[in-house]
Specification:
- It is a single chain.
- This protein is of the alpha/beta class.
- The protein has 2 domains: 4-17 and 272-358, Alpha-Beta Complex (Aspartate Aminotransferase, domain 1), CATH 3.90.1150; 30-269, Aspartate Aminotransferase, domain 2 (3-Layer(aba) Sandwich).
- It contains 13 helices and 12 strands.
- It has a 7-stranded mixed sheet with strand order 2-8-7-6-5-3-4, sandwiched between helices.
- The chain is globular, with a radius of gyration of 21 Å.
- The mean pLDDT is 95.
């Protein structure tokens, strides 16, 4: 097995089970950032003259990685900014289905605007709950996180395809922040009409960069009002009314978005198939171990598929014990959230379990 840890020096000190809160910065991305700012230091505006070329490369890299045409890839500083632009472009009065207790940046952006809302519960019957609410309420839009931030419940992507077949006019807006970077994903083949994601978590691209992907028909469905000089600058948006231009009204940071491209190059070099397989193996091992110790809520135990994010039973005392043993995780909801990425190992899980058992 490859030594995935060598790109992340922090793993020499800590057992890092906190990607769901903040991804690690790889050495490859750090090297890009250092070179970029050195170039800026000695070149000034000469470097910035290449901004369009750099951002075109980033857009093409994102599109290639997620199977989306680059003229339908918008670059934004974070998911929350982009999602607010998206919802501002939706006609007022539309009915939107949300998930109860979904990530605040999804629900708040809808609830703070003039939309009618309805909700489905997040539990072991998530997909059934969604179907029942849609049949009853007939919403125009379903906005949701592909993976839930507190307990890691992951929506079934095949279910979304079936949902779209039964409800072709229903628009699906997905937040992939806790999903993108954990498995291969073909946006064009998916049921989603829009996918947005911040990339500082599972893609290990650092802060200040995110993307939004759009199916072609979204040009006729949403009409954001934001506009600026940069809205019409660049290879893929140099025309009036460009949808992705509406998401990019000002100058974009070549340091942050170049970091995204460097992170994508590292993922491709490592191998997305190998990353996906490693994440799935660790997820399965962790679920079995947590289930055996009675650390999981029933909703997680009963679901067939799960993400690499878990909320295990534990209080402040256990959280501090984990920290004192250099195990990095987060307190979320009523428990302790741990998450496993491809650079984690079975030994990391074993250390976690040994520390948990030691408190008994």
């Amino acid at each position: 097995m490859k030594n995935f840890k060598k790109q992340f020096p922090i793993l020499g000190q800590y057992t890092y089970l906190n990607t769901a809160a903040s991804g690690l910065l790889p050495e490859a991305v750090l090297e890009f950032r250092q070179d970029h700012d050195l170039d800026f230091l000695i070149s000034g505006s000469i470097l910035k003259e290449k901004q369009g070329e750099v951002l075109t490369g980033v857009r093409e890299a994102v599109g290639r990685f997620f199977h989306c045409a680059p003229n339908r890839v918008a670059l934004t500083p974070n998911f929350s900014y982009g999602f607010n632009v998206l919802m501002e472009g939706v006609e007022k009065g539309k009915k939107v289905l949300l998930l109860k207790n979904d990530y605040p940046s999804v629900n708040w952006a809808v609830e703070s605007r003039d939309f009618e809302t309805c909700y489905a519960a997040i539990d072991e019957n998530l997909e059934q709950n969604i179907s029942e609410v849609i049949e009853k309420e007939r919403p125009d839009i379903f906005a949701f996180s592909l993976v839930q931030w507190i307990n890691g419940i992951r929506i079934d992507l095949n279910f979304l395809k079936e949902l779209k077949q039964k409800n072709p006019d229903l628009l699906l807006f997905g937040d992939g922040t806790q999903f993108c970077g954990t498995e291969d994903f073909d946006f064009e083949d998916s049921a989603l009409d829009v996918l947005g994601a911040s990339t500082y978590k599972w893609m290990n691209a650092g802060y200040g960069n995110a993307f939004f992907l759009f199916k072609e028909h979204m040009e006729e469905k949403i009409f954001p009002k934001s506009l600026g000089f940069n809205s019409l600058q660049g290879k893929y948006k140099a025309q009036e009314g460009s949808l992705i231009g509406k998401f990019e009204p000002g100058h974009l940071d070549t340091l942050n978005f170049g970091s995204l491209q460097a992170a994508l190059e590292l993922i491709e070099k490592t191998g997305m198939a190998e990353i996906e397989q490693r994440v799935k193996e660790l997820t399965s091992e962790a679920k079995d171990a947590f289930k055996k110790e009675g650390l999981l809520e029933e909703a997680i135990v009963k679901r067939e598929f799960h993400s690499p994010i878990f909320n295990i039973r534990g209080d402040e005392k256990l959280f501090q014990k984990l920290r004192s043993n250099n195990i990095i995780c987060s307190q979320r909801g009523e428990g302790i959230r741990v998450s496993f990425h491809y650079f984690n190992t079975t030994e990391d899980l074993e250390k976690l379990m040994k520390t948990i058992r030691a408190k008994k």
